[in-house]
């Protein structure tokens, strides 16, 4: 199928640029290439052995899209399937994908959805807003089931950080910037959600700045874990942080009782 807009071609270039090596383990899939208003057409594995919310956080950093235009007004979006709502810049396009994950410590065998919003026409390939929805077991009725906000933030960053290889003799002498690195900036609980801010950088790429909200909800059938992540290059964050803060304020998971 031919791309509907110039942005689809840019997404294809992103897929080639952002391949990563991951440990062999049980795997789930997330979309890394999608055309606006169409389902994702290419899939890339991420580890399934981590907790559901850790893989949701990793999914967010593996969805490279394009740079934002902060002057655009926010337009509400209501998700009928999983019951969350969010407002995103009106000129952005939406891509979506579904992936069936294997059962692990926290997740149950059910589809995991990823929805992303991104602007068109900017070649920097750095900014997007992503919501990842993952099934969790019925006994997980609060975020406390995953530890405190600080513990969640520490675990999320630890799942992506490889900087220990720069210090461990077993890995030999490696120069700075040669391994994948993640750094926690802060984590807290707010409005019954976890807020996590961190940076992430892959070798030979610019450092990214990410802000996430994590919530539990029930879509009327099963309990779901909702992870909203907004990201951009670290060098762009001072220009994008107000836009990101505005988007995060609009996010509402379903109000149904768990």
From TrEMBL:
All residue ranges annotated as the PsbP C-terminal domain in the record: 74-252
Gene3D superfamilies, alphabetized: Mog1/PsbP, alpha/beta/alpha sandwich
A GO term for molecular function: calcium ion binding
Domain of life: Eukaryota
Any Pfam family the entry gives: PsbP
One GO term (biological process): photosynthesis
Gene Ontology CC, one term: extrinsic component of membrane
PANTHER family per UniProt: PSBP DOMAIN-CONTAINING PROTEIN 3, CHLOROPLASTIC (PTHR31407:SF17), PTHR31407
Name by which UniProt lists this protein: PsbP C-terminal domain-containing protein
Species: Apatococcus fuscideae
């Amino acid at each position: 199928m031919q791309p509907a807009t110039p942005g689809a071609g840019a997404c294809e270039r992103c897929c080639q640029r952002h391949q990563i090596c991951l440990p062999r383990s049980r795997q789930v899939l997330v979309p890394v290439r999608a055309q606006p208003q169409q389902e994702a057409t290419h899939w890339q594995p991420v580890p399934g052995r981590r907790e559901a919310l850790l893989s949701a956080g990793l999914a967010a950093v593996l969805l490279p899209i394009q740079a934002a235009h902060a002057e655009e007004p926010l337009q509400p979006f209501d998700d009928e399937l999983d019951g969350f709502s969010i407002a995103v810049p009106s000129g952005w396009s939406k891509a979506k994908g579904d992936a069936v994950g294997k059962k692990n410590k926290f997740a149950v065998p059910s589809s995991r959805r990823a929805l992303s919003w991104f602007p068109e026409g900017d070649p920097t390939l750095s900014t997007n807003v992503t919501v990842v929805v993952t099934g969790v077991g019925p006994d997980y009725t609060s975020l406390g089931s995953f530890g405190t906000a600080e513990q969640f933030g520490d675990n999320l960053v630890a799942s992506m950080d490889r900087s220990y290889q720069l210090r461990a003799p077993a890995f030999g002498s490696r120069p700075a910037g040669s391994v994948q690195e993640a750094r926690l900036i802060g984590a807290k609980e707010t409005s019954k959600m976890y807020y996590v801010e961190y940076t992430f950088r892959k070798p030979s790429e610019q450092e990214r700045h990410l802000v996430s909200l994590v919530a539990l909800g029930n879509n009327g059938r099963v309990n779901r874990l909702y992870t909203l992540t907004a990201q951009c290059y670290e060098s762009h964050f001072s220009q994008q942080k107000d836009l990101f803060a505005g988007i995060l304020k609009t996010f509402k998971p379903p109000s149904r009782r768990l």
